[in-house]
Design goal:
The protein is an alpha/beta fold. It contains 16 helices and 24 strands. The model is unreliable at 1-22 (pLDDT under 50).
Length: 627
């Protein structure tokens, strides 16, 4: 059976042949075509961004992953719509790779006027990734040797006698930048990121009368969408005035729970800002917070090296990176995860699946909430060991976890594992689990780094580490230096309906009552239904897809009616990062194999977009093929 992805790719190819004025991409750019979506080209772009106080000019940049139809070659056709995406907590553009590619591909299969529709997606990178020194990742990809990256970032002796990779050693050439080096990150807050989005949107030239730019956010990024739409920018306009619609994916929409901050709350906010600026508090997250030892530059560098191994290894060969890392809090299943041998595909799946051994409770708790269903490890206990359960007491829960059913009766232990077997992964579908995501897509998203980019190395004099050259042109799936100020501001700004501040270098004018007259689309794992889910009194065009079905206001139905039975029942908090869309056209959106989001939001966007936009050509941005 021919897959929907293949049909859409063929449609894109047909459009390319029909529109002969567009040059084909050079064959050397094949490394920028998205795996499983060859009709979509990806480019990693950097433009001048917001000017944060104290930040070296070379680092005041906005980076984003741009996804557009490959059929247009190096001369993008005018866009019917552009979606600007904001990642969620600890998330990055690669996590959007498949959702965005599905949207671009689906749109190309539709007709706008007498031409195939053109939809582009631009996903903002977190600024901490602009500090990633990725030259050894690029060299490893260029030479097809992942060991180059391992030796540079972790050390030649990081592989132990058991053949598995351990923590970084003194022989590693790369050393992380310090909190002192990055003191300027104390001002990488909401306003800086909003200015970066301003810079991105400023690159899109809407033709006279056009209005077709949509702002989308996932999880924490959904909160940003509300905040940005309500914010008065430097040009005097509120964000909502520049946008054709708002898209919330498991985050928001929110008009704030408090009218405005009290004097005490403002004082507490500025006390934290002062602590960040003075160096009393850390400016970037490092082995702390909700993610613990898997957060910060050392962990992110290791994850980036893992991504290169994903890219250059047979997914069915044995992985050399363990699932548990030094410094992680003890948890049920530790012994099992340290003992079991996995393929690269199984390692990828088990690293992000909510329950990789069904009912076994071996996933760390934060990923029980932030992860998704991707399949399961192909594991059964050795005969006679079924009762050798791990007795490790459960850790204290962090936050509200997704309902996972009753506590595990038997957490697997290392004693159950066959030491001579390399375990694979069972993908959803067929005899596998009935889930909406696939580990192969999650692996590809972490492995992928487009060969096309305009990012050049910059040399910066840092306060403690001295002169360093930063080449951040290799797209990474982890944020090396997560901004504490950004995470703090995200919660603070989102809490209030109105903010008007001009104090201590912080200038904010946010009024969420201004969010009116703009279409809103929501897809979330919750059960909120009807008008109770819409916090914006002035929004009358409102669509929501959740676990119980789809609800729309009369105005929304009149524009693009959706089947009320479409739902997100199979979807977890971040399922779009590995969302399978291979059965599109065969099942209803929301069923396994058909993305609940891309299966509904593309038509929603195209029906609400007005006119055409001219998006920048790769040449005008200085895009080149890196290797």
């Amino acid at each position: 059976m021919i897959s929907a992805a293949f049909r859409l790719a063929a449609a894109g190819l047909a459009a390319a042949l029909a529109w002969t004025a567009a040059p084909a991409l050079a064959s050397g750019d094949a490394g920028s075509r998205v795996p499983e979506y060859p009709d979509v080209i990806a480019e990693y772009i950097q433009v001048p961004g917001g000017k944060a106080p104290g930040t070296p000019a070379a680092l005041n940049t906005a980076s984003f992953l741009r996804l557009r139809p490959a059929a247009d070659g190096d001369r993008p056709r005018p866009a019917n719509a552009v979606i600007v995406g904001l990642p969620g907590f600890s998330s990055t553009p690669p996590h959007w790779l498949y959702l965005a590619s599905q949207m671009v591909s689906r749109a190309s299969g539709q007709t706008c006027g007498d031409q195939p529709c053109r939809l582009e997606v631009w996903v903002l990178q977190r600024r901490g990734a602009n500090l990633a020194e990725t030259e050894a990742l690029t060299e490893a990809r260029r030479k097809g040797d992942p060991a180059i990256a391992l030796k540079h970032y972790l050390g030649a002796d990081a592989i132990g006698p058991d053949g598995r990779v351990g923590p970084p050693t003194a022989s590693a050439a790369w050393k992380p930048l310090t909190q002192t080096d990055l003191a300027f990150m104390a001002d990488w807050g909401f306003e800086t990121y909003a200015a970066d989005v301003d810079a991105m949107i400023g690159r899109i030239r809407e033709r006279s009368g056009a209005r077709n730019i949509f702002l989308a956010g996932h999880s924490q990024g959904g909160g940003f969408v509300s905040n940005y739409a309500a914010r008065r920018g430097a040009d005097g306009r509120r964000g909502v005035e520049k946008l054709a619609g708002l898209i919330f994916l498991d985050g928001g929409p929110s008009a704030g729970v408090q009218p405005e901050p009290t004097v005490a709350e403002l004082d507490a906010y500025f006390a934290r800002v002062a602590a960040l600026r003075s160096g009393k508090d850390r400016v970037y997250t490092d082995a702390s917070g909700l993610l613990g030892a898997i957060a910060g530059p050392a962990s992110a560098a290791s994850q980036s090296v893992t991504g290169v191994y994903y890219a250059l290894s047979d997914p069915n060969s044995e992985a050399i990176f363990p699932l548990r890392v030094v410094g992680m809090a003890p948890a049920p299943g530790d012994d099992f995860l340290k003992t079991i041998r996995l393929t690269w595909l199984a390692r990828a799946g088990a690293s992000f699946d909510t329950d990789p051994v069904p009912g076994g409770g071996v996933q760390m708790q934060i990923l029980q909430f932030l992860g998704q269903g991707l399949g399961r490890i192909d594991f059964t206990p050795l005969p006679g060991t079924e009762a050798n359960c791990d007795r490790t007491p459960p850790p204290t829960a962090v936050g509200t976890m997704r309902a996972m059913g009753p506590p595990p009766k038997c957490v697997p232990s290392g004693a159950m594992v066959d030491p001579n077997r390399v375990h694979g992964w069972i993908e959803p579908g067929g005899a596998g689990p009935r889930e909406a995501g696939r580990a192969a897509l999650w692996l590809n998203a972490q492995a992928f780094a487009p060969t096309r980019s305009n990012i050049r190395p910059v040399t910066v004099q840092f306060a403690e580490s001295g002169r360093r050259t930063i080449d951040a042109s290799d797209l990474i799936a982890s944020n090396w230096y997560p901004s504490e100020r950004w995470d703090f501001d995200a919660g603070f700004v989102g809490r209030y309906r109105t903010l008007k501040i001009d104090r201590d270098g912080v200038k904010l004018d946010v009024d969420k009552a201004a969010i009116a007259g703009v279409p809103v689309y929501v897809a979330r794992q919750g059960f909120t239904q009807g008008v109770s889910g819409n916090p914006f009194p002035g929004v009358t065009d409102y669509t929501e897809v959740n676990k119980t079905g789809t609800w729309q206001t009369p105005e929304a139905k009149a524009v693009s009616p959706l089947d009320p039975a479409i739902n997100a029942a199979f979807y977890f908090h971040t399922d779009f990062v590995g969302a399978d869309d291979s059965r599109a056209g065969q099942e209803r959106p929301g069923e396994p194999g058909v993305s609940a989001v891309s299966g509904t939001v593309v038509d929603w966007v195209l029906k609400r977009a007005k006119g055409l936009s001219d998006t920048p050509s790769p040449a005008s941005l200085g895009v080149r093929t890196r290797y």
